[in-house]
Specification:
The protein has 478 residues and is of the alpha/beta class. The protein has 10 helices and 26 strands. The strands form 7 sheets. Strands 8, 9, 10, 11, 12, 13 and 26 form a 7-stranded mixed sheet that branches. The termini are far apart. The structure holds FE2/S2 (inorganic) cluster (FES).
Length: 478
């Protein structure tokens, strides 16, 4: 089998851990204990992870972070496991699922009584917003539990290799994956904060009782919290074009996860769709990983990302086609090529302007949408706000939603960036402890005011104009 692991990288060093084998559809596959099962299969050259249920078409993996369900497999007898969220070290036998899965044997579940947990503050999601919330709620004495469905904390910071801008208290000049390490380190030092990983919150019920499933220990958790902060982040947007479900079409963030977290090359030749900052940064990172980037297409007449990123790519000879879109992916079992086409000012295709590229990877960098289903289920008043990426909860400036005791932070409350997510997390964490302990926490009030001022300062810049418009529609007084 071909090996797609990256052996040299200008910035990253991959700590994969020990080698470990497992079977995939009966065949032995070699992986490393710290990588995800999906990354190990991808490194071994496997591209088809499921079949469409009606037509039986091959399907690849789209998100690599547990948000799209395109990688569901049977793992050690348990069906419908997202193999991008579990490490190789925990598995023995993995099987693909072509039909609806068989229910698991009940004997494989230890008992049917849920474990009861009581905490002051439950935080759903261990990315930058959730970690900052935990650090600040824990700092003022709250007993905090973070629940995350992945097998390590850090959210999407772990795949960011660029250095952050801004102020020192928000880690300027430090790369995203290093920030993740610092935050996780702070959590580990704080005895008030505990974290459970590989655990999915599936519902928020009356009286802030939360249902979760601990995949690793195969048990239900019934968590009673005084305050709940939802920081579940976002998922990547899809795009409509012919053959968009071929394996090899994936989110730009998914490609970042494969190459920057696991050190696995997502392909050999890539086309990027979308020239915002994410598209431009991922294009450059693909080149750092040894992938040939053949072109970037952007539907708008102008590049959306920073000029400095675009200029760097052009210096390396990567063409950026503005007023173009992808028309079709080619291939039978996986992507073998892509056709792009020019579009006019009304986004109509211009016949005869097609260009063909031989590629095995198409990365979609066409935006994110808030992963807000849990908030809608919990009964928060929601609004569709295009400027914030989709369906978000109404809340006040302290991040409190319309459901008492339920707060939000980060991309789930509107797509912005990691610095604002951290500040929102800090504000939500402090608000949660103030709500529990009352007005005695003078320092906490001051800390929160500082963060509110910082957030306002960051959002006052011209690039945040659209965000400000969106926030005006969802921030309610109270
Ligand atoms: S859920 Fe695993 S690839 Fe999306």
């Amino acid at each position: 089998m071909k090996n797609y692991r990256i052996t040299e990288h200008p910035i990253l060093e991959f700590k994969r851990g020990k080698k470990k084998t497992f079977t995939y559809n009966g065949e032995l596959v070699e992986g490393y204990e710290n990588e995800s099962v999906l990354a190990a299969l991808y490194a071994a050259g496997i591209r088809v992870f499921s079949k469409s249920k009606v037509l039986g078409n091959p399907r690849g993996a789209f998100c690599m972070i547990g948000k799209c369900s395109s990688c569901l497999m049977e793992v050690d007898g348990v069906p419908n496991v997202r193999i991008c969220t579990i490490p190789v070290k925990d598995v023995k036998n993995v099987k693909s699922q072509s039909e609806l899965a068989n229910p698991p044997a009940t004997s494989s579940f230890p008992g049917n009584r849920p474990a009861n947990i009581n905490v002051d503050v439950l935080i759903v999601g261990g990315g930058p917003a959730g970690l900052f919330a935990a650090i600040h709620a824990g700092k003022y004495g709250a007993n905090v539990l973070i629940v995350d469905d992945h097998y390590f904390l850090g959210g999407q910071l772990v795949k960011q290799t660029h250095k952050f801008f801004g102020s020192r208290d928000l880690f300027s000049g430090i790369r995203g994956f290093e920030i993740a390490k610092k935050l996780v380190n702070q959590i580990e030092q704080n005895s008030n904060v505990q974290a459970v990983t590989q655990t999915t919150v599936f519902g928020i019920y009356d009286g802030l009782t939360v249902g979760a499933y601990d995949h690793k220990n195969r048990r239900l958790l019934k968590i009673k919290a005084k305050q709940v902060i939802v920081a579940t982040g976002a998922s990547e947007n899809y795009l409509v074009f012919e053959n968009n479900d071929l394996p090899g079409v994936m989110g730009a963030g998914a490609a970042q996860t494969l190459m920057n977290v696991y050190g696995v090359k997502p392909g050999e030749r890539a086309l990027i769709v979308g020239a915002g900052n994410v598209g431009l940064i991922v294009a450059y990172q693909l080149m750092q990983a040894g992938v040939d980037v053949v072109a970037i297409v952007e539907a708008m007449p102008r590049i959306g990302g920073y000029f400095v990123h675009a200029a760097k790519l052009r210096r390396y000879g990567v063409p950026i086609y503005t007023s173009h879109t992808i028309k079709k992916a080619h291939g039978k079992n996986y992507v073998e090529g892509a056709t792009i086409i020019a579009i006019d000012s009304r986004f109509n295709e211009i016949p005869g302007s097609e260009k063909y590229f031989e590629v095995d990877l198409i990365c979609l960098a066409v935006g994110l949408n808030p992963y807000s289903q849990l908030l809608a289920q919990a009964g928060c008043r929601m609004a569709y706000i295009p400027e914030l990426g989709g369906l978000v909860p109404l809340r006040n400036k302290y991040q409190e939603t319309t459901v008492s005791g339920l707060l939000v932070a980060g991309d789930v409350s509107g797509i912005e960036e990691a610095s604002t997510a951290m500040l929102e997390g800090g504000i939500a964490g402090i608000t949660a402890i103030i709500n529990i302990r009352g007005k005695k926490l003078k320092d906490a009030f001051m800390d929160r005011e500082k963060m509110l001022a910082k957030l306002e300062e960051i959002r006052s810049g011209p690039v945040f104009e659209r965000i400000r418009k969106g926030l005006e529609k969802v921030i309610v007084s109270g």
